[in-house]
Amino acid sequence: MRTTWLILVLMLLIGGIMYFLAQKPQRTTVHNTIAFGNTPDSIRQRTILYVAYDPAQVYFRDSAWSTADSTPLKIIPPDSALSAFNGHGSATFYIDYNHQYFYDIEISKPATGQPFGLTLDLQPDPANNTVQLSGVVDSQNGKLDFSGPMMKMFNAFVLSYNTKIPDSLRSADSSLAKAEKLITVIRK
Fold first, then answer.
1. How many domains does the chain have?
2. Dist. CA 138–CA 117, nearest whole Å
């Protein structure tokens, strides 16, 4: 008889603990994600994501992305969680489709502890001979939608961000409107 009461009390205790844990609000895990939305698998398999931190210039030569000091850019696996910023204030993401088209987007680091999401959709646009990219940057501060055609790539080119290049390397002609970024083709 004593064993029966002991089992009954233990079952009530375990049931109470399980009820308490089930009613407790679930805390979401803070992590950064990059995912493809409605992109066909044929395009998804040919798309590579790269990341650079505060780049002044990025080089593309013969299917390889690198910074000015020849350090290869980090490849990010699609549809995965990542620690995108690694202590940096911003990250520039490069979406490379089959080494024929690319798109770059710079995203500032969200506040500490806030989740961040980047959803990309790529669709072929045969009428304009390009690939259309649309995406959403989602954080607790709100959503930012963007879209546009991906840029045609060359065998070798340099992508310069004029706002990050030191003044000593900028063009001396200040009468021209300053471009935010400039593509210099090395080899077609």
1. 1
2. 5
**Cross-strand bridge partners of residue 61:** 64, 156
Distance of CA 23 to the CA centre of its chain: 35
| Distance of alpha carbon 124 from alpha carbon 132, whole angstroms | 6
- Following DSSP, what letter does each residue of 129-160 receive, concatenated? TEEEEEEEEEETTEEEEEEEEPEEP-SEEEEE
Contact criterion met (CB below 8 Å) for 49 and 95: yes
User: Could you tell me the residue range of the domain that residue 102 belongs to?
Assistant: 2-187
Q: What are the CA-CA distances from residue 31 to residues 34, 80, 107, 114, 117 (Å)?
A: 10, 10, 15, 8, 9
| Cβ atoms 78, 44 nearer than 8 A | yes
- Dist CA 148 CA 143 (whole Å): 17
Q: What is the CA radius of gyration of the chain?
A: 24
Residue matched to tokens 């995912």: 35
Question: What tens-digit pLDDT sequence spans the chain (188 residues)?
Answer: 788 888 988 899 998 888 888 887 655 444 567 888 888 888 888 999 998 888 888 999 988 999 888 899 988 876 665 666 677 777 888 999 999 999 998 887 776 667 778 888 999 988 988 899 998 888 776 788 889 999 999 999 998 887 666 555 555 555 455 667 888 888 88
Burial class of 134 by CB neighbour count within 10 A (0 to 12, 13 to 18, 19+): middle
